[in-house]
Each structure stands twice: as C-alpha cells, then as structure tokens.
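ingest -> validate -> predict -> emit
validate: passed (alphabet ok, no gaps, 307 aa)
predict: started
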Amino acid sequence: MFLTCTASLTCGLRHASRIWVLILLMGPGQICQAEVTTVMLTATQVVKDPRTSYAGAVLALALEKTRSEYGDFRIQNTPVMNTARALLEIKANRIANQLIVTSFQNKMLDDGLRYANFPIEYGVTGYRVCFVSPNAKEAVRRAKKLADLQKFTIGQGSGWADVAVLRHSGFKVEELSNHESGYLMVASNRIDLYCRGINEAMEEWQDHANVTGLTIDSSMALRYPLPRFYISNQKNSALLERISKGLHLAHQDGSLQKEWRRFYAESVSFVKLKNRRIFNLSTPNIDRIDFDYRKYFINPEQAMSAK
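emit:
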C-alpha cells in the first residue's frame, strides 16, 4: 500500500489514525511517488556493439529531455537476442516497453510495430564498408561497376533490412543467424563480403583483428537509405511519442549531434570514405514512413567537424 500526491483521502475518522501512522513510517521521500517508466532496450548479440552503447546513450538523452513532462525513467536491457528474434518478441509484446533500434521495413507496420519518428544515427549506417575474404580481395579492389560486385556472396544478419536491399540490387545474400559468425565465414572464404556500417567498422575490426585471414576492404563502399529508429509494439505508442519528442529536442539544441560525434567520429575517420568508390543502391519497402526522414541525413565527414 502507498499514497501518492494525487490520491484522494476519503477514509473515515476511524481510519485516520492508521493513515497518519503510515505516513509517518513512510517518510517525506515516499509520500509523493511519481510513476517511473521502465524501458527495455534490446541487447544485441555483439558483446561490444557501438550501436548498443549509442542507442542506450541517446535513449537516455531523449527520456531526460522529456522528464519534466513525462516523469522519471529507468533503462534496462533485455536478454540477448538477434534482430529477427527481437522483432518477433516485440510483435507479441511479451516484454513490456521493449524497444529495438533497427532499420525500418514496411511490413513492420502490418506486424503491429511503430517507430519514434527520428532516424537516430542520421543515416550513417547506410554507408557500408566490407570485410572481404582472401579469395575475393583483389577482385573487389578492381571492381569499377556494380555488376563487378554482384558476383560476390554477401553475408548479412537474419532480419536485417540490408538483406532486402542487397537482393533488390542483384546481390547473392546469405543470411546469418549469428552476427559473430560473419567474421569467421568471410575470413575462411565461405562468403565473400561481410558489410558493416561505417560507424561500426573500426571497433569491429579492432575486436576481430586476431581472426586469421580477416581483411577489411579499403577500396569501395555501398550507400543506400537506411533509416534506423527506436521501434516497439504499437501498444507502446505513448512511449514512442515521448522518445520522438525528446529526440527532436536533442536535435534542436545540438546535444544529439554531440553524442553522434562522441560515438562515431573516430570510426568514420578510420574508413576514409573520401578515398573509396561509392556504389549507390536503392532501398525497397520503406515508402510507408510518414515523415521526411531524409532531411535529417548527414554527410558523415562534414558532421565530424561540426560544432
């Protein structure tokens, strides 16, 4: 039993003495208890995933920006799961207030999912550089046209939106149930390419530099629209509205861009994007996004030097 600031005390006189005893026992810090919103952020399969660190920091920023209007919050992680599993869990709404940061696909709306309407990574994950197999390394370096790349097999995680993008563009794609297996498969020539966002590449290269045969290509990059959002079940629309409002406030005052640079500038610098050939691809099945997300997309190298 507890009392809140808005509770109406309608107890009769014969209960009054017990109520005052309860108030004295509770103390002043417990009399006015504001509701605390617990948000469950999906834990990815990657132990040191820079996206998860960024996703957690930005989520906390958005919720803090809206604390005065919506109240206190806490952020917790779900059990580790891949993207495909997480989307199934969110569709079933088995974990209250579960969020995942992932790329939008139209079918999510049909599955009862919704998004906070701000692309939290400013589109940077749509710039992809690739770990390359020993057998394909030289041929990839010589590739001048998209057709030169389409003969290679690309590994991508199960449930990732990149699968549809790459297949739409004529690539052979092998879906991987485990993120970590991609590095081993490309190093052992079981797949030709394993492509990652330029905001992820440096740390993932450092973490897997001891994998025999693993090389990161330095000659080219793929680029396609890949807006990534906080996504949850439609029943959590109030939470998504709060997050959206907080993200826009953080964007307007520059604190969101500051977090982007803090987490990603070093990796963007590492890939030396200006020295690469850029192959532009189109993204199918994202035309049901109901706002202009592209206006928030940035040039990654320019963003690094912005104040």
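The first strand starts at residue 37 and ends at 43.
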